[in-house]
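job 3f2a | input accepted
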Amino acid sequence: MKKVPEEKVFQKVYPFTTENIGEYFKRLDLKDKDVFTVGSSLDQAFNALLLGAKNITVFDLNANTEEFYKLKRDMILSVPREKLFSEVLKQNKVSLDPDNFPKETVMHINPYLKNDYYFNVLREKLQEDRISIVYGDIFNIDDYLEKQKFDCMIFSNILQYLDFFAKNEDSYQFLSKNFQKWKEYLNKDGIMQLLYLYSFSMEDAIKPNNYLSTYNLRKVMAALKGNELMIEWFDDSFNNEKDAIVTYTKKM
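job 3f2a | predicted structure (252 res):
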C-alpha cells in the first residue's frame, strides 16, 4: 500500500456526524446497494447499513478510523441506545470537540438513534460483517482500490478540504481530474454524493465567489462541464438553516 504523507493525515475523528443524514440518505436509495463512503464518525456507514446497503466500503485518510469503527461498533452492540451518546463522548482520545455535539440533535439526525427499533435493526445487521475499512487518500484512489464498482459513492463534506489537497494546482482542475477517476468506480445509474454544503442557501448557490472553492457552484459546474449535477436542499442539523447536497448520476 502506498504510504500517505504524514502531514496530510487527519488524526482526529468526530464522535457523531454533523450532517443531517436522516434527510439526505433517503434521497440516495441505498437498499441492496454496494456503497462507498468516508469515515470519521462512521455514522455514514452505520446508517447505510441500517437502510439496507448490501456492502459498505469505508475509505478514509484518518489512521484512527478503523480503531474507532471497532470501538463504536462494540458499543452499539453492548450499550443501550439512550446511553450510547455519553459513552461515545467518553472516548475523547479519538474524538474531536465533543462539546459541539448536542445530544438531542445527534439523536434526531441519525436514523439508527431515533428509536429502539432502528437501533436493534442495526445491531442485527452489524453481526453480518458487511463493513470494510480502507485507509487511503481519496485523491489517489487508484492506489488503494482494485477496479471495484459501487452503486453509491458518498463523499460527505471532504471536498471542503479541496484547497488543502490542491496546494500546488488550480483547485478546479484538480477536482475535474479526480472526478473523472471517481466516476470509473460507479456502476451505471450509480449515484455520487459529491458535495455536502453546510448552511447553504439558494442565494449562496448563485454567488460568484464564496469562502471555499467547492461552495462556488458556478465554478464547480464549469470545471465538471458535460456532467449533469443536481442540487437538493433540506433542513440543516444545527442552525435552523438549509444544507444542500450535490449529486451526480452515471448514465453511461
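job 3f2a | The first helix runs from residue 21 to 24.
job 3f2a | closed
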